[in-house]
């Protein structure tokens, strides 16, 4: 039958796309940091090129680690982060996120974001100044011993000030403050007490030593990123190693002049560390990879213009450092406060026009209801409400097609094997009765981008991490933890993990509900008379059930809710059009057909 063939085409198309998606994206020793290259920002005007700073860097990795371990520290203690700042180099290099644990267990360690030299994966922010060839004075670098001039502990209400006197008439200060969330403000200043003008270039960079452990999932960007004059740049760790520009032996880099506004740094799945320039501040953004005998180094640098400091004057430059969780509301608040397109730090993907609204809707409903699982179901109702006019038109057309079955059978009997004549008479019948045989495909086809977009949102947004629903669902970003293989926890042994081969069939309650609701949807219509079509339809719910069993439980819950609402809509609309919908009878016929086939 024509409408059944169209539905089959749409269903097979949906199946193939999701199957391809599933195959392609299966749910699945340290040196001292060096100064930036001795060169001036391209935005500099009227100053000589900087030279390498006096003092250089530590002589070796072992010495650098020992110095880092022995350095005095200033404590960081706010409501959301704790850590410390090393007075050797004035590095922000130790930070823990107090609101987030590594696992669902509240007793598990908090997430560590920044880590100092000497740890397995150093990750830190460094600030400093470079002199120019015209004024080759001593400047503070990564190994400079700073003193704590003001403050005792860095909190959201009490900043600190570090100071260093170069002994040549220049006094450098670094004032660091922290807001109530994850934003550090760093003001670097230099006071010139000499009788001659000096030219200095401020810089900052975020550095990672060794390639960090990543999710390594194709749809997720992890690595360096930046937004420069409205253009988003993303480079994963492999891309950083493949940079073509040279910054010296073993150094590959890309330098991007920024004229109006920008930010850059490193992003993980849920966390981010970025340097941010004030609006209107030009600078050179640098992505860099350094190959070292003892490991790789990945850096993002912000090279600011040369500052000319007159005798008796003070020059200052202020930047910001975001180091924290990629919370949608928090990042949006920073964007509204003046950081351009900061929300794009979240990887929205190709369907950003859907993923962004979906994320906002989910966060809104979660705030309203207090539970992300129910928020997903509420959003499903909203999506179905928006698509209802199209669904109504589709189901009305399907009802007309169903009522036209007797006429269509008569045409087939009358024209016999004359396919051209049969097609002509069928099209005339559709036109006369205002029926669209393809209308039934549209609701299914529209679910494909919605499915992909919601999958992306559930996978990349922090709000889904460790978000509970009801009963056994404690993390909507993880698969349903139950399994039929141990009777959903009734038997005293653990079911196979989803990452194993057996885990593919070790599905839980909600994936089974997905298969059942999809199967019931099919029973709104009789099975096709063609044996091949009937077999495909019969297997499809159970293939989907196992295929999506290892996906995020939040996505499966959405699918179950969507199937339930779709079934209800179609049943009511078809009954209103005078179509006899015999779900129970169709179920009995399917079992009878199966029994006859086996016999």
TrEMBL record:
Name all Membrane insertase YidC N-terminal domain ranges.
73-359
The primary site where this protein sits is membrane
Record field: transmembrane: 7-25, 372-392, 435-455, 501-520, 541-561
Where composition is biased (Low complexity), the residues are 31-55
Name the segments for region: Disordered. Answer: 31-71
Give a GO biological-process term: protein insertion into membrane
Q: Which GO terms describe its molecular function?
A: membrane insertase activity
Highest rank taxon of the organism: Bacteria
Q: Which GO terms describe its cellular component?
A: plasma membrane
InterPro entries to which the protein is assigned, alphabetical: Membr_insert_YidC (IPR019998), Membr_insert_YidC_N (IPR028053), YidC/ALB3/OXA1/COX18 (IPR001708), YidC/Oxa/ALB_C (IPR028055), YidC_ALB_C (IPR047196), YidC_periplasmic_sf (IPR038221)
Q: How does it assemble?
A: Interacts with the Sec translocase complex via SecD. Specifically interacts with transmembrane segments of nascent integral membrane proteins during membrane integration.
Similarity-based family: Belongs to the OXA1/ALB3/YidC family. Type 1 subfamily.
What is the protein name for this chain? Membrane protein insertase YidC
Which gene specifies this protein's sequence? yidC
């Amino acid at each position: 039958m024509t409408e059944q063939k169209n539905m089959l085409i749409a269903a097979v198309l949906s199946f193939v796309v999701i199957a391809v998606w599933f195959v392609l994206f299966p749910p699945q020793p340290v040196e001292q940091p060096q100064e930036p290259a001795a060169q001036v920002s391209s935005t500099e005007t009227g100053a000589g090129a900087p030279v390498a700073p006096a003092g250089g860097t530590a002589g070796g990795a072992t010495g650098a680690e020992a110095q880092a371990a022995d350095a005095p520290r200033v404590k960081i203690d706010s409501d959301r982060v704790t850590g410390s700042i090393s007075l050797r180099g004035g590095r922000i290099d130790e930070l823990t996120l107090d609101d987030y644990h590594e696992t669902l267990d509240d007793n598990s360690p908090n997430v560590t974001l920044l880590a100092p030299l000497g740890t397995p994966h150093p990750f830190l922010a460094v600030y400093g100044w470079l002199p120019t060839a015209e004024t080759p004075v001593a400047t503070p670098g990564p190994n400079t011993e700073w003193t704590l001039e003001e403050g005792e502990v860095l909190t959201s209400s009490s900043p600190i000030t570090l100071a260093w006197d170069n002994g040549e008439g220049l006094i450098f200060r670094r004032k660091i403050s922290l807001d109530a969330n994850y934003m550090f403000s760093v003001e670097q200043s230099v006071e010139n007490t000499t009788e001659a003008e000096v030219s200095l270039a401020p810089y900052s960079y975020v550095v990672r030593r060794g390639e960090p452990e990543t999710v390594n999932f194709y749809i997720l960007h992890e690595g360096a990123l930046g937004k420069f004059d409205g253009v988003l740049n993303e480079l994963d760790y492999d891309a950083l190693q493949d940079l073509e520009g040279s910054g010296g032996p073993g150094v590959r880099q890309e330098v991007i002049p920024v004229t109006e506004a920008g930010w850059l740094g490193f992003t993980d799945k849920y966390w981010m560390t970025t340097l941010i320039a004030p609006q209107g501040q030009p600078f050179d953004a640098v992505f860099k990879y350094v190959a070292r005998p003892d490991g790789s180094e990945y850096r993002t640098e912000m090279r600011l213009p040369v500052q000319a400091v007159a005798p008796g004057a003070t020059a200052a430059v202020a930047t910001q450092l975001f180091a924290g969780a990629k919370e949608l509301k928090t990042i949006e608040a920073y964007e509204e406060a003046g950081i351009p397109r900061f929300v794009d730090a979240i990887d929205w993907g190709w369907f950003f026009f859907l993923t962004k609204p979906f994320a906002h809707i989910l966060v809104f409903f979660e705030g309203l209801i207090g539970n992300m699982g129910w928020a997903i179901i509420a959003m499903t109702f909203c999506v179905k409400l928006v698509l209802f006019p199209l669904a109504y038109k589709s189901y009305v057309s399907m009802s007309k097609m169903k009522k036209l079955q007797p006429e269509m059978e008569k045409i087939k009997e009358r024209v016999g094997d004359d396919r051209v004549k049969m097609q002509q008479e069928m099209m005339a019948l559709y036109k006369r009765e205002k029926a669209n045989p393809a209308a039934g495909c549209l609701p299914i086809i529209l679910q494909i981008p919605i499915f992909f977009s919601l999958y992306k949102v559930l996978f990349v947004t922090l709000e889904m991490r460790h978000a509970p629903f009801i009963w056994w669902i404690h993390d909507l970003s993880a698969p349903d933890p139950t399994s039929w293989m141990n009777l959903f926890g009734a038997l005293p042994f653990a079911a196979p993990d989803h990452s194993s081969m057996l885990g593919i069939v070790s599905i839980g309650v909600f994936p089974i509900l997905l298969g059942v609701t999809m199967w019931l949807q099919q029973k709104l219509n009789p099975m096709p008379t063609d044996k091949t079509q009937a077999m495909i339809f019969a297997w499809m719910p159970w293939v989907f059930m196992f295929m999506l069993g290892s996906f995020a439980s939040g996505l499966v819950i959405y699918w179950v809710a969507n199937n339930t609402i779709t079934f209800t809509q179609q049943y009511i609309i078809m009954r209103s059009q005078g179509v006899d919908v015999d779900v129970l009878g169709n179920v009995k016929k399917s079992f009878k057909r199966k029994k006859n086939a086996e016999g």
